[in-house]
Design brief:
Elements: E1 3-8, E2 18-22, H1 32-41, H2 43-56, E3 64-68, E4 76-80, H3 91-108, E5 113-116, H4 128-145, E6 152-157, H5 160-171
Parallel strand pairs: 1-6, 2-4, 2-5, 5-6
Antiparallel strand pairs: 3-4
Helix pairs in contact: 1-2, 3-4, 4-5
């Protein structure tokens, strides 16, 4: 059974096998969580991301790219693209795809512990409370169908408000 918990803090400082990066399609880590990951882990993460895009093309929804973690505590960084929030699309479905792709990719490289941020709740405009609810639901669904795949999933809120949104979603039945 997977232990799921909430942590307030910097995702780059988490002691897990893999951290999830809320990336853009071109894996150009210039802002937000992505930039923080490259600053903390080193240029190698951006270099490996550039190489991944050269070989595979832009990252699509429901797809994950994995790089090493460079100088991070985490051995791997799993890059996924969450939805840019729009009223005219299936935001929830796209966000669930991103979470599922991240957890699938993490286990494929052998990770047993994963840290996830509030994917799409930053510059992609997804309302924070709704995004954290969808992420928690997707994590629960994934861990129910893969009960022994991961030991730990940390839901990381950089600020108190995001951590509290994760906690509220986790407390829902």
């Amino acid at each position: 059974m997977t232990y799921v918990s909430v942590v307030q803090g910097d995702i780059t400082q988490q002691h897990v096998d893999a951290i999830v990066n809320a990336a853009n399609e071109h894996l150009a880590h210039g802002g937000g969580v992505a930039a923080a990951i490259v600053r903390a882990g080193g240029r190698v993460i951006q270099d490996e991301s550039d190489d991944w895009v050269r070989r595979h093309g832009p990252l699509r929804p429901g797809q994950a790219a994995v790089t090493t973690g460079g100088a991070l505590h985490a051995r791997w960084v799993v890059h996924v693209v969450g939805p840019r929030y729009r009223e005219t699309q299936d935001n929830e479905g796209l966000l669930r795809q991103a979470v599922t792709a991240a957890l699938d990719a993490a286990t494929e490289v052998g990770a047993t512990s994963v840290a996830l941020p509030a994917i799409s709740a930053g510059i992609f405009g997804y309302p924070r409370d709704e995004a954290t609810r969808v992420i928690v639901s997707a994590v629960r669904d994934w861990t129910e169908t893969h009960p022994d795949a991961l030991e730990t999933v940390l839901l990381v809120g950089f600020d108190a408000g995001t951590a509290e949104s994760f906690r509220a979603a986790l407390d829902e039945p």
